Amino acid sequence: MSESPQALGAPVVRREGRDKVTGSARYAAEHTEPGCLYGWIVPAGVASGRVTAIRTADALAVPGVRTVLTHDNAPRLEEPDDPILAVLQNDRVPHWGWPVALVLAETPESARAGAEAVHVEYATTGHDVVLTADHPGLYTPEKANGGYPAVRERGDAGRAFDAAPVRIDATYTMRGLHNHPMEPHASTARWADGHLTVHDSSQGSSTVRDSLAQALGLDRDRVTVVSEHVGGGFGSKGTPRPQAVLASMAARHTGLTVQLALPRRYMASIVGHRAPTVQRVRLGADRDGVLSSVSHEIATHTSRVKEFVEQAAVPARIMYASPHSRTEHRVAALDVPSPSWMRAPGEASGMYALESAMDELACALGIDPVELRLRNEPQTEPDSGRPFSSRNLAACLSEGARRFGWYDRDPQPATREDGPWLLGTGVASATYPVLLSESAASAHAAPDGAFRIGVNATDIGTGARTVLAQIAASALGVPQERVTIDIGSSDLPAGSVAGGSSGTASWGTAVHKAATALTGRLAEHTGPLPPEGITVTADTAEEAAQESPYARHAFGAHFAEVAVDSLTGEVRVRRLLGVYAAGRILNSRTARSQFIGGMVMGLGMALTESSTMDPLFGDFTECDLASYHVPVCADVPDIQAHWIDEDDPHLNPMGSKGIGEIGIVGTAAAIGNAVRHATGARLRELPLTPDKLLPYLP
Asked: What is the pLDDT of residue 3?
């Protein structure tokens, strides 16, 4: 029997698809009006110091330039909730690229020319921008990102490791990484009758509204932030960014609408990045591959503006059974831009190291890598002892191995060839936590039989509008075509940020509650509906505040086949296959797109993406898409995503887990393990570029 149009799981087509392909979907930088001014940032050209003089006469002489804001004349801000938003408030330069002036002009071209004509003088101080494993500034923070304790210990991992008959002690390094969404960060701000409206490219307009209100000293009801269509974010738009504050300040200063879109080359310094990591993993096991000790120690960097610690050791706390464990994060505050959220923060980087080490252990033992993982399946979450709400990693590994043809491979490395190409296969596990944040929604029934749902969700390209309509239609018992979804405005019931793979669970739970309550109200109502209809609101405050007695995670398995050119060192991924256990899949069409998109991001992490910190100037050298290489369709000719049917009653009314990021987690390790199988060479630094491989090729 085919699924009904409103059924959860049905492959419903995106609601906004036609608007996007026809150009009628309007993004943050497309809300211009007559008389709009355009802003262009003047970024700091030193890594540390202070501004001693800003000369603007040449800039003001550029035709079309109206004014230049600096720390001397910019509106004063209240203390913002995020220090990166305290722009143009003093002469301090905490890192290369920090905004030191803003040129406002009648056209983007004039603004850019004016910015190039601003002359800035600095008093510089020595800077320190390079992370090393033994950096003297490394310290142990109280918490890592997400509120996780920086250090967790069970038993005596060091002693158990020393006593283990088989041991792996390896260090894995990753350079910085940057998000590059198709739509750059942009804001269009205008004031009218004391009310500020900002169209912002953001993953959460309620959060931006709150931050702007605090920084500008306004009541929240005097600020509206709209993020109706967002062209990708991947974490970099998960918190308010300086362009929203700068555009709002400039609009207040000039009394005109101001638009500010960041050039791509400025994004590396202004909108966050995944910090580089040095990760030491130690695994101790018996000769049957049963783990007795797991240690994962992380060194990373943060900025001097604020502390942000990538929680890369956290996945090791929940993945594999071991009586002894130690996981630790250390961080050094350097003269670098502030790191931030990026594509499965913690899990993506940490699981690369852990799953590479598991492959090394399998090789040392002569045990199949899939079998090794199955032998170390925990009965409960190792770190907390809580039972899993569901854990179908074993099913993902088994199903993935079957679909991939895993057991047909020759386990010996460097044995398969196709002309000059060396062929290999690799596997890695994946995990991502189930998160739920506080959100609210309204459900309205109109007299004509139509329904309208309001929730300040943000669709960053994942299909949130469509899935929320399906959730509402399912709860209401009506075809989804009768449901209209309003999202993307802070004037709607407050929604959480589209991040942490938590959006659908958080917004969807509120929508489900509101729609269910509305169904009850309609059942009690007799006669025709009043002209104004009936509206019901609901929120997830209670659900978000509850601590579940269960450990709730999504799991997955990634399989990769690669070909390595023995002459050039080039790596080509011939096949990628992922199998996931992520609760109930709510829309098979958009879910498959998310899984595949995540896997392609993991491929980029493995082979092409990195940001190199220049120790002399203190800036990232790969600052555009000509130098920061993201993968394209031609980079992976065969990519498949599948999932296990999983019934987990301990999640939310939909029975769903987040799927936006788990596709990234594990992909890089699977590719790295495949490269080792192809060549016999174990490389422990990403990305796996030809120059690193060439010394190990015949």
From this structure: 42
CA distance 475 to 469: 10
Terminal C-alpha separation, the chain: 56
Report which residue type is found at 279: Q
Q: Which stretches of 333-368 are DSSP H helices?
A: 347-365
Q: Residue 7 burial by CB count (10 A; 0-12/13-18/19+): exposed, middle or buried?
A: middle
Cross-sheet strand order for the sheet of 451-454? 483-486, 451-454, 440-445, 534-539
What contacts 25, CB < 8 A, 6 or more positions away? 16, 19, 228, 229
Per-residue pLDDT tens for 472-482? 999 999 999 99
Residues sharing a CB contact under 8 Å with residue 607, sequence separation 6 or more, in sequence order: 571, 573, 631, 635, 671, 687, 688, 689
Q: What percent of the chain has pLDDT over 90?
A: 98
Angle formed by the axes of helices 588-607 and 667-679, nearest 10°: 50
Among 109, 328, 661, 685, the active-site one is: 661
Query: What are the phi and psi torsion angles at 44 (to 5°)?
Result: -65, 140
Reported as a single tens digit per residue, the pLDDT across 497-521 is: 999 999 999 999 999 999 999 999 9
What residues contact 548, with CB distance under 8 A and at least 6 apart? 389, 650
Mean pLDDT of 265-288: 97
- Report pLDDT digits (tens) over 506-562: 999 999 999 999 999 999 999 999 999 999 999 999 999 999 999 999 999 999 999
Q: Return d(Cα 195, Cα 523) in angstroms, integer.
A: 41
686's enclosing H/E stretch is strand 685-686
**Token pair listed for 85:** 């938003």
CA distance 134 to 428: 29
Q: Determine the Cα–Cα distance for residues 519 and 533; give it in Å rounded to an integer.
A: 13
Q: Supply 98's token pair.
A: 């920090």
Q: Give residue 233's Cα distance to chain centre.
A: 7
Q: What's the Rg (C-alpha) of the chain?
A: 26
Q: Rounded to an integer, what distance in angstroms lies between the CA atom of residue 358 and that of residue 378? A: 15
Residue 661 annotated in active site: yes
Q: Is the pTM of this model over 0.90?
A: yes
Sign of CA dihedral 389, 393, 399, 400: positive
pLDDT attached to residue 6: 52
Q: Which amino acid is at 564?
A: V
| SS3 category, 153 | strand
User: How far is residue 226's CA from residue 56's CA, in Å, rounded to a whole number?
Assistant: 33
Residues 339, 276: Cα–Cα separation, whole Å: 9
3-class secondary structure, 372: helix
Around Cβ 139, how many Cβ atoms within 10 Å? 12
Distances (CA, A) of 464 to 14, 439, 497, 499, 517: 9, 14, 12, 12, 22
